[in-house]
Design a protein that fits this description.
GO molecular function: electron transfer activity; heme binding; iron ion binding
Number of helices: 10
InterPro entries: Cyt_c-like_dom, Cyt_c-like_dom_sf, Cytochrome_c4-like, Cytochrome_c_Oxidase_Subunit
Number of domains: 2
Shape: globular
CATH superfamily of the largest domain: Cytochrome c-like domain
Largest sheet: none
Strand content: under 5%
Keywords: Electron transport, Heme, Iron, Metal-binding, Periplasm, Signal, Transport
Order of helices and strands: HHHHHHHHHH
CATH topology of the largest domain: Cytochrome Bc1 Complex, Chain D, domain 2
Number of strands: 0
CATH class of the largest domain: Mainly Alpha
Structural class: mainly alpha
Subcellular location: Periplasm
Radius of gyration: 20 Å
Protein name: Cytochrome c domain-containing protein
Length: 191
């Protein structure tokens, strides 16, 4: 038997065994890992880094997608969270929240982003020193993701979370300023 025939036989003999694997035999965070990375560091700015994130924030966001309070481009998150059983949500949240925070991006801010972030008062809630439960850490996050979220808050595409913060009133105007804030935050280490 040649190698090609042997591989075909092997694939055919293992196929049904693999097909019998139930999805619930895998840890629930593996579903999330397809986009967010197994250890919570995604490879593209379309998906946020979840590693080292505030666990209350992660829980709130999952429930927001489940109820439809939060949406995203194309509804991917709304579809995937329905695959999680209620008892699996805390398991996935704990996994990502306890991972090491992602490494910061290389610094590109010329000081504009830092100044705009401080002037808008974003750190009052989002800096780790604020210690507000349920508020996301923004440092070491993808700059592209942060920019889009700020734009979505301003346009109304993203609604306020459970704390009811009026982000559009707080955020500075202008995509260039929002991008500068995002670049500043992406390059800041999460303590």
């Amino acid at each position: 038997m040649d190698l090609k025939a042997a591989l075909v036989c092997l694939a055919m003999s293992t196929g049904p065994a693999l097909a019998d694997f139930a999805a619930d035999e895998f840890p629930p965070y593996e579903r999330c890992a397809l986009c967010h990375g197994l250890f919570g560091v995604s490879h593209t700015a379309k998906f946020p880094n979840l590693a080292g994130q505030d666990p209350d924030y992660l829980t709130t966001q999952v429930h927001g997608f489940l109820t439809g309070h939060r949406t995203n481009d194309g509804g991917q998150m709304m579809a995937i969270v329905t695959e999680l059983k209620p008892e699996e949500i805390p398991v996935a949240v704990e996994w990502f929240a306890t991972q090491d925070a992602p490494a910061p991006a290389p610094a590109t801010d010329d000081g504009t982003g830092r100044a705009a972030y401080a002037e808008a008062g974003c750190g009052n809630c989002h800096d780790q020193a604020a210690e507000l439960s349920g508020v996301p850490f923004l440092t070491a996050q993808h700059a592209g993701y942060l920019t889009k979220q700020m734009q979505d808050f301003q346009s109304g595409a993203r609604r306020p979370g459970p704390l009811g913060v009026d982000h559009p009133a707080l955020l500075p105007q202008g995509d260039a300023t929002l991008a500068a804030i995002a670049q500043y935050l992406a390059a800041e280490p999460r303590e």
